[in-house]
Amino acid sequence: MIARKIRQEHRGKLTVRLLETKDGFTGVLIGTPGGQPTVIHGTDREEVWRRLELEVGKHHLNYFGFDGARSRFLREYPAGFHTPAYAVDERNYKAAAKAMLDITAPLKEVASGNGFANAVRKVFRETNLLASTEKIRLRNVLLGPSADAFVRAAAAFALGAGTPALLEMDKLLRPHDCAKWTVVTYLPFLWRPDQHMFLKPRVTKDFATRVGHPYARVYAPRLDMVVYESLLDLVARTEAELADLHPQDRIDVQSFIWVVGQPKPAAS
């Protein structure tokens, strides 16, 4: 069987091409410095394409890979997640917000209940993860007639409802101009930090660019599960890279992404 081109895309000066061969699939990245194409073989079409995407990311000007990300984090917190200053700066207040949410608005009760909006509103106030304008607009939602519906939709999303729950939150938040990734991922992240991730778009996109992950290209402000699934793939890869640092959960992973994207200024 002659190799057959089944997919091709252009990424700036680079060309990404997927071929079907008698043995499976071959991915080719053309246009890299030096002119030598990168070739990847495999039997799983999607896996070959995913590996090609990762190769594309390595050619961005801001790329420094997971080794660079780790070095930047450890410059700030030399003992990693066990550095006392890390707990004070990054973890403790998020863990406290999670504890408050678990006590005042337990996930399973919220998923089928009413009357939790005030408790949820207080939890949103406990951290600086949302901008002040987002908190003001969200306050109007949580004090209005859509409050219970929004909280239940957030709980459904945390429990794995996916697109239907995301679309419901979008519908309820859009009239208040707060159908934002930060707003819809905040509660699922705190309820289930073993499975979900809080999405701070600019910093996360910057991080993805630096480690060469396709999320940097996939991201869009619209609430779409394709974006969120790409985020979760980025998080899973980051967890694997940080395994020896022993993050407790995705609160630590989110903090890692934030620190790498928002380094402290060097001392003068």
SSE succession: EEEEHHHHHHHHHHHHH
Number of domains: 2
Helical coverage, percent range: 55-70%
Our measurement of the CA-to-CA distance between the termini, rounded to an integer number of angstroms, reads 64 Å
Adjacency order of strands in the biggest sheet: 1-2-3-4
Rounded radius of gyration (Å): 21 Å
Strand content: 5-15%
Query: What's the pLDDT, averaged over the residues?
Result: 90
Question: Could you say which structural class the secondary elements and strand pairing correspond to?
Answer: alpha+beta
Q: Would you kindly provide a written description of the structure presented here, covering whatever features stand out?
A:
- The protein is an alpha+beta fold and 268 residues long.
- The chain has 2 domains: 4-57; 65-261, no CATH class.
- It is built from 13 helices and 4 strands.
- It has helices at residues 45-57, 65-76, 84-104, 107-111, 117-125, 132-142, 147-158, 163-173, 181-191, 201-211, 215-218, 225-241, 250-261; strands spanning 4-11, 14-21, 24-30, 38-42.
- Strands 1-2-3-4 form a 4-stranded antiparallel beta sheet, with helices on one face.
- Strand 3 (24-30) and strand 4 form a beta hairpin.
- Helix 3 (84-104) packs antiparallel against helix 5 (117-125).
- The termini are far apart.
- The mean pLDDT is 90.
Chain-wise SSE layout:
Blueprint: E1 4-11, E2 14-21, E3 24-30, E4 38-42, H1 45-57, H2 65-76, H3 84-104, H4 107-111, H5 117-125, H6 132-142, H7 147-158, H8 163-173, H9 181-191, H10 201-211, H11 215-218, H12 225-241, H13 250-261
Antiparallel strand pairs: 1-2, 2-3, 3-4
Helix pairs in contact: 2-13, 3-5, 5-6, 7-8, 7-9, 10-13
